[in-house]
Amino acid sequence: MLVYKFGGASVKSADGIRNMLKIVSSVEDNLFIVVSAMGKTTNALEVVLENFMKAEQEAALEKLTEIETYHKEIIAELFKDKSVGETAVEPFFTKLKTILSESVGNDYDRCYDQIVSYGEVISTAIISAVFKEKGIVNKWLDMRELLVTDSNFREANVNFLEAEKRLKSAVDFSQHKVYIGQGFIGTNMKGLPTTLGREGSDYTAAVVGNLLDADSVTIWKDVPGILNGDPRIFQNTIHIPELSYLDAVELAHSGAQVIHPKTIKPLENKQIPLYVRPFGSPTEAGSVIHQTAKPITVPILILKRNLVLLTLRPLDFSFVLEESLTWIFTVIEKYRLKVSLIQSSAISISICVDNSRYLQRAMDELSNDYKVSYNTDLEMLTIRGINKEIKQQSIQNREVLVQQVTRRSGRFIMRALEK
Ligand code: ASP
Ligand code: MG
After folding, report:
1. Which band of pLDDT confidence, cut at 50, 70 and 90, is reported for residue 399?
2. Rounded Cα distance, 24 and 130, in Å
3. Which protein residue has the closest C-alpha to ligand 1 atom 5?
4. Fewest CB atoms within 10 A around its CB: which of 4, 196, 292, 402?
5. Residue 31: which pLDDT band, with cuts at 50, 70 and 90?
6. pTM (two decimals)
């Protein structure tokens, strides 16, 4: 069986969904389709949530109406009989309205998962219904019942054992050749909805591939495949036809947005190839990530934005590496900071992290034992396959705060350019 994942950009319009239909109808294998929320729906639901948390009921409902209108416009364009599409999403919008009008949020992360997860629920309901209308028999699955995770709301970790049991009992390819499920969302053991972290649908596809022993997983994207740099940032990018799991995971962790960093592990563990293919031209091969890829010969450039460099010095002048590391990383884990780079001296340590919701609280806690200083608005440039010229070209005229260069790669923390 195959796993296909379609992201928000691919299903943002009726045209996109028609293209998806075309791609899917040419598949002969059994297929599990993972879909994200349509377009920018997740961002829009985050706004609904903000209003809900502040007890701004009217604003929340107004924003929800915009989201509903957007989906209904797509439905009207897509279905022969639009009432079929409307009926498919109706219960979910009704439920959301009830949540928003009957209560006020208290636990941010938990409410986030309860509300924001509807983006994927609604998109898959529409897609499953339109597939049926066009003759592609399929079974819609609710991953809020199947993809079991822990209760780390907004960044939940998959419970592979439980998820495998539930998924395998829900999926039977002798009954249906095509299953459609949501990316990004799951359930804790108590049945409360969870989410896997922004852009987490790729990860869902990989987990499903792992649990159902897929022959391959394909992520359909609005890019020609994997390139040696983000074409929105770098010029003259080159297509990389194949990549090893190791290079792919380094690339993704450095901030290459083409795949979510957690995607590689479940696939590597079962040696399942991952294809990244162009949604706009489905006959092209795109790129493949697998074990046996030849080493990359072109330098790869990755720019990660919106980083903060924390510098910590123990107030009691103790050695940071010997005496403080465990505590520092306990705090980092507690506030779920994402670390990109670490550099230390005798009594100080610099840690470059993503700017995030709980950063200030982490800094407050660290301030009990450390002098904490920080720089915001930073970028990290990673160059894999570094050489003198490329380094020179890439960082000239830039203020570099920290750099780490090894034989193969370099990382440069720089102040962001004025926009
Ligand atoms: N819809 C979610 C997001 O936008 C998950 C995803 O697209 O992968 O973050
Ligand atoms: Mg998305």
Report:
1. very high
2. 13
3. 199
4. 292
5. very high
6. 0.92
